[in-house]
Amino acid sequence: MSDKATGPDRFLGLVGLCRRAGRVVIGAPLIGTAMRAGKLPALVLVAADVSAGSAKKLTTKCNFYKVPLLSVPYTKEALAHAVGKDAPVAALGILDAGIAGELLKSSGKDAPRTKGSGME
């Protein structure tokens, strides 16, 4: 058996690692505030069950600031659990470019997209 986690375990594990390193912005409102302040995430993760309104706002912000956006197949509760929160988390801003790259690789995506992400 391999020592390396794969699939969902690896993806959510990387998200948790990013949280423990203090390199994540938790929640759509705080991501927007960070972007306006010039603290641009390397990648924004959006939960599968996010509302259409929140998805549109995040997509618009990511397009404006040219920040990659990745819709992930995890619920708000799964993302919350990965970062140690009790309340649901609709979105996460990953500040570490290295971890963002690993998350993209782990998700099977070649390159992040800000337009046409399937969230419009």
Task: Please characterize this protein's 3D structure.
By secondary structure, the chain is an alpha+beta fold. It has one domain: 60s Ribosomal Protein L30, Chain: A. Helices cover 46% and strands 12% of the residues. It contains five helices and four strands. The protein has a four-stranded mixed sheet with strand order 1-4-2-3, sandwiched between helices. Helix 3 links the parallel strand 2 and strand 3. Helix 1 packs antiparallel against helix 5. The longest helix is centred in the N-terminal third of the chain and has 14 residues. The C terminus is likely disordered.
Nutshell version of this structure?
This protein is of the alpha+beta class. Helix content is 46%, strand content 12%.
| Sequence of secondary-structure elements | HEHEHEHEH
| Euclidean distance between termini CA atoms | 41 Å
Number of strands: 4
Can you give the helix content as a percent range? Answer: 40-55%
| CATH fold title | 60s Ribosomal Protein L30, Chain: A
Strand content bin: 5-15%
Q: If helices are DSSP runs of H or I spanning 4 or more residues, what is the number of helices? A: 5
How many domains make up the coordinates? Answer: 1
CATH class: Alpha Beta
What is the global morphology?
globular
Mean pLDDT: 87
Q: Identify the CATH homologous superfamily.
A: Ribosomal protein L30/S12
For the CA atoms, what is the radius of gyration? 13 Å
**Architecture (CATH level 2) name:** 2-Layer Sandwich
Blueprint (SSEs and pairs):
Elements: H1 7-20, E1 24-26, H2 28-36, E2 43-46, H3 52-65, E3 69-71, H4 76-82, E4 91-94, H5 97-107
Parallel strand pairs: 2-3
Antiparallel strand pairs: 1-4, 2-4
Helix pairs in contact: 1-5
